[in-house]
Amino acid sequence: MASESCDVCERSVRIAGGIGDLWNFAFESTQGLTLELTDGSEFFLCFDCMEKLPDDHEPTAEDVADLRERTEPVEDDGNHFWHWR
C-alpha cells in the first residue's frame, strides 16, 4: 500500500498496487494520478483536484498554480488514503 500527497490540496491519497497490496490483499482503487501536462510540467493530483482543472483548454502549470491558490490544504484527519471531506 502506497500513498502520495496531492500537489494541490496536499492530501495523502492511496496509490493501488505494489508489493504491499499483494500481501494484505487490499483491493481499493487508486485515488490520484501523475499528470504530464502539455507544457512539460508534471504533477500528482487527486481525482477531486483533477476535476477542478479547466476543461476548455489543455491544463498547464499555471492552471495548477491557480488551483493551488484557490484551494485550502485539507487538514490531516488521520485517514491517509481517502480524499473525503
Task: Characterise the protein shown here.
With 85 residues, the chain is an alpha+beta fold. The protein has one domain (3-70). Helix content is 25%, strand content 21%. The model is unreliable at 80-85 (pLDDT under 50). InterPro entries: DUF7561 (IPR055983). This is Small CPxCG-related zinc finger protein.
Summarize the main sheet. Answer: 2 strands, antiparallel
Q: How many structural units, i.e. domains? A: 1
Shape: globular
Order of helices and strands: EEHEEHH
Strand order of the largest sheet: 1-2
Helical amount = 10-25%
Q: Class by helix and strand content? A: alpha+beta
Instruction: Give the assembly state of these chains.
Output: single chain
Into which percentage range does the β-strand content fall? 15-25%
Q: Helical region count?
A: 3
As residue ranges, the low-confidence spans are 80-85
Beta strands, count: 4
Mean pLDDT: 81
Distance between the termini: 22 Å
Kindly provide the radius of gyration, computed on alpha-carbon positions and rounded to a whole number of angstroms.
14 Å
Structure, briefly:
This protein has 85 residues and is of the alpha+beta class. The chain has helices at residues 19-24, 47-51, 61-70, and strands at 2-5, 12-15, 32-36, 42-46.
